[in-house]
């Protein structure tokens, strides 16, 4: 009775090719994930580019939304990095919007959650850490590595501190990617599992199943609301941490 | 019953998982055969998004916000300038009004003074004329009185002559009669 994709909570993460594309032995097919990525870019572009095309002094709805998002991200960036952090504004903005829109579109029933794949979140995390490293070293040279040498630490403790700082730096991309991936994956699995309980209980022949079926349904509804919160929160956390890490590249040294 | 249905559910899930495992060999997010394709399309889409945002959307929205802030501060400036001007105008108006009031008072005073002077002068003229006429009338009265008195004396002496003549039968001279009348008149 539990057979088929209806109840399998993992099924929703499967990647299915839409247009096959395999040059040089690499599988670069246009898949459902790729389709969602294209839709994400389209949705963001509609809000930000079409929304601002009127350039109205008194904004309409879509322009208000575009301005609101702009000011929200801009205030986050300047709040963490200060005024000169605005050079990273397009990067933080693109990351935040891509992750947020990906999370939100993943909440549409039957769609696909781009951010529930670790390779995507890891790519973003390494993009951030790569930017931090390259910008930090190009801008500050060896002074950038002062990041690993906290001030005011006694000499004998220094090797340990440097080691701890280095480990914490290296673990940043891992935690950054795993946090987003884990939240999205777990949330969607939980939703599917509770939804599956409802189906399984109703598919059963027992009357008892019909009686308690509403319970997992209620839980699934509550979880859906929670998932919307998590979808926004994780995008915001990703953006904030991106700002914090980029701040190290801008202003190294504690 | 509940435990039975739960058990079937778990069994079903386990069966689905094993079926799935047999078919796909791995959990989709960890299926490395899809990594290259995902990264490829992510790079393209994120690259396009970054380009669109950094070259078109963000400068445009930033310009809109800046322009609005400029417009608002400019309008506020203009409004405060206008207000200052309005206040200035109001003050000028107040001053003009006060001046006009003062002028009006002066003019009223002057015209009142002039009127008083003119009426004074006319009164003086009329009074002078009247007193002249009075003097003239008094003179005329005095002359008439003197003339009348003279006539009365002449008449008196004639009457006296006639009385004396009637009484004595002897006519007194005109001089005697007139002297006697004078004496009587002098006695009052």
Describe the structure.
Helices cover 67% and strands 2% of the residues of chain A. Chain A contains seven helices and two strands; from the N terminus they run ββααααααα. Chain A is globular. Chain B has 188 residues and is mainly α. Helices cover 91% and strands 0% of the residues of chain B. The N and C termini of chain B lie far apart (170 Å). Chains A and B meet through strand 2, helix 1, helix 2, helix 3 and helix 4 of A and helix 1 and helix 2 of B. Chain B: InterPro entries: ATP_synth_b/b'su_bac/chlpt, ATP_synthase_B_chain. Chain B: Residues 1-16 form the signal peptide. Chain B: Keywords: ATP synthesis, Cell membrane, CF(0), Coiled coil, Hydrogen ion transport, Ion transport, Membrane, Signal, Transmembrane, Transmembrane helix, Transport.
Nutshell version of this structure?
Chain B: It holds the Pfam family ATP-synt_B. Chain A has 254 residues and is mainly α.
Blueprint (SSEs and pairs):
The complex is a heterodimer of chains A (254) and B (188).
Chain A: E1 17-19, E2 30-31, H1 32-50, H2 61-81, H3 89-106, H4 118-140, H5 158-203, H6 207-212, H7 214-250
Antiparallel strand pairs in A: 1-2
Chain B: H1 2-24, H2 35-168, H3 174-187
Helix pairs in contact in B: 2-3
> Count of DSSP E strands of chain A?
2
Shape category of chain B: rod-shaped
What composes the largest sheet of chain B?
A: none
Distance between the termini of chain B: 170 Å
Tally the structural domains of chain B: 1
Entry keywords:
heterodimer, A: 254 residues, mainly alpha, two-stranded antiparallel sheet, 2 strands, 2% strand, globular, disordered N terminus, B: 188 residues, 3 helices, rod-shaped, membrane (chain A), ATP_synth_F0_asu_AS (chain A), F0_ATP_A_sf (chain A), hydrogen ion transport (chain A)
